[in-house]
């Protein structure tokens, strides 16, 4: 089958208009759209029978579907994808929406975590969907690293950043650690760390450990590696996922089966399954991306869509993402500019913090 843009180009004006009106009607009402209602909105005057014939052709192409015994049609996932790629008219950001987002995010006080909590609340409040926010790792240069023994099987790694931010985490160190091996490990790290972010440091460390294996005590080396693994949160490239507005999605439907699917989606989200994939996917193209239903395996069972955009730091590096989750009949034309604007604003606020 040809791709969506080819199919659109091959359609005549009447087929294209019927298709567009069915999808727009579905996105507005959530229900099937019948031929009779289209006779009142078509540009040219045609009979309901003619429109039904066009709908049957569109159904044959896999773009429309007829649910249950209804005479109306709804778009398939392929149809929605084609509409979003070829016919969607993205509106300018509504002034009220902009003001609500600005009012929520305009205050750049507090830490980045509280800012991104407010981002989630603002997005779910403005869109009446659920919001998803991937928070960045703390990427300021490092000033100092320290290991502190807390007993036989517990140690604390303390990280002080150049911007004054301090973090510490408890981890299980390799067996046999002594105060001197801990000092040796910290000295080794601090000699390499200053001026580097944690991500940069990780790459340098691997090279240095390989080159200085004899010189660096094996206990200290193990401590460095296990302590940094704690910081890197291996398998979880992004530090935190914020999901807000879960109840908004659950209120969208009264169908028990749909409720169960959406609950399953949020259970997966809360376990962070496949979350990193979102950011990798957003990196493949600039700006807002739209994933419909099973285009992302996380959403294949829930029948949900995700509108997501990455946000960047002052160096134009993607460090996180914001998005809105909703039913496939999201008002894409309105949601896209909201997500786009929010991502740009978050990037600016985080970049401004770095300059301060």
Care to give the gist of this entry?
The chain has 356 residues and is of the alpha+beta class. It has helices at 4-10, 13-29, 35-39, 48-60, 77-86, 95-105, 112-127, 179-193, 198-211, 218-232, 246-251, 256-270, 275-282, 332-355; strands at 64-65, 74-75, 130-135, 142-149, 155-161, 166-171, 240-244, 289-292, 304-312, 318-327. It holds the Pfam family HrcA.
Map the helices and strands.
Layout lengths: L3 H7 L2 H17 L5 H5 L8 H13 L3 E2 L8 E2 L1 H10 L8 H11 L6 H16 L2 E6 L6 E8 L5 E7 L4 E6 L7 H15 L4 H14 L6 H15 L7 E5 L1 H6 L4 H15 L4 H8 L6 E4 L11 E9 L5 E10 L4 H24 L1
GO biological process, one term: negative regulation of DNA-templated transcription
Protein name: Heat-inducible transcription repressor HrcA
Family: Belongs to the HrcA family.
Q: Features of this protein?
A:
49% helix; 356 residues; transcription regulation; Enolase-like, domain 1; Arc Repressor Mutant, subunit A; alpha+beta; 5-stranded antiparallel beta sheet; 3 domains; 3-stranded antiparallel beta sheet; Heat-inducible transcription repressor HrcA; Beta-Lactamase; repressor; 10 strands; WHTH_transcript_rep_HrcA_IDD; transcription
